[in-house]
């Protein structure tokens, strides 16, 4: 049998609430399924949601880590299709950052009960973000390899905090996130930069939510409008939060808004 390149994790609620769809969380670039575990999974389990997380191909505990740089967004969408097919019911898909693109790529031919896009990559791709960071935080590109290799300095943590997290996030809290960080596929990174040249495909008429942080230095909240418009989605901006909504000190506000919306979605 071929190697399954992704890894799916089940996190059932102790007391499931009604017949609501399960939640399937899809991580973003430079991280893996562990990013959902400190806050979001326990919170949603307590609200009665069955949860699933996934390590996309080459990420976390998935197979084929050595082949990471050969995987692209289409491969991740295939991972997601297989993960969805293995679930007992169509899920609400929750994609963060790059994961928002994976979710949308999957939905070009797949199905879901609903979708929530957190800190989504804008339709224009990552080129504008990279240019803005090069001007405003030029150290970021020098420090990123240190953090993905697991050898950050004090300055590395400071720069990562400035770019990815809320201004209220302590450096000790950033340090605790290091096990969640890894390298990212060069192919996927290139595809995100050239996103406008890739056809989007169909957008099914399903409930949709778009959420971002007021202090997101990667994709500013002004960019949420364009993603929300394309999905006719409800838009939420979390005050004080940065790019990593599930890990920032404001995570509970983000989780509550997501759960309140998800309560209205039926499979």
TrEMBL record:
Coiled coil: none annotated. Residues 23-250 form the AB hydrolase-1 domain. This is Alpha/beta hydrolase. Keywords: Hydrolase. GO terms for molecular function: hydrolase activity. It comes from the Bacteria. InterPro entries: AB_hydrolase_1 (IPR000073), AB_hydrolase_fold (IPR029058), Carboxylesterase_BioH (IPR050228).
């Amino acid at each position: 049998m071929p190697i399954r390149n992704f890894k799916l994790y089940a996190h059932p609620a102790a007391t499931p609430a009604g017949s609501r769809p399960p939640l399937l969380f899809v991580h973003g670039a430079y991280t893996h399924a562990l990013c959902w575990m400190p806050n979001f999974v326990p919170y949603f389990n307590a609200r009665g949601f069955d949860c699933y997380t996934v390590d996309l191909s080459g990420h976390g505990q998935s197979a084929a880590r050595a082949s990471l740089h050969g995987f692209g967004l289409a491969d991740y969408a295939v991972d997601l299709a297989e993960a969805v097919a293995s679930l007992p019911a169509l899920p609400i898909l929750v994609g963060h950052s790059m994961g928002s693109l994976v979710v949308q790529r999957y939905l070009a031919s797949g199905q879901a009960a609903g979708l929530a896009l957190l800190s989504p990559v804008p339709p224009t791709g990552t080129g504008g973000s990279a240019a803005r960071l090069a001007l405003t935080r030029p150290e970021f590109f020098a420090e990123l390899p240190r953090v993905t290799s697991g050898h950050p300095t004090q300055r590395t943590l400071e720069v990562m905090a400035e770019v990815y997290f809320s201004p209220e996030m302590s450096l000790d809290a950033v340090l605790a996130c290091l096990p969640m960080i890894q390298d990212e596929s060069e192919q996927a990174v290139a595809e995100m930069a050239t996103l406008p040249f890739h056809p989007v495909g169909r957008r099914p008429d399903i409930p949709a939510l778009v959420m971002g942080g007021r202090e997101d230095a990667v994709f500013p909240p002004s960019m949420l409008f364009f993603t929300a418009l394309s999905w006719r989605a409800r838009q939420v901006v979390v005050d004080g939060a940065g790019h990593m909504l599930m890990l920032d000190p404001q995570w509970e506000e983000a989780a509550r808004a997501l759960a309140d919306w998800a309560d209205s979605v039926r499979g």
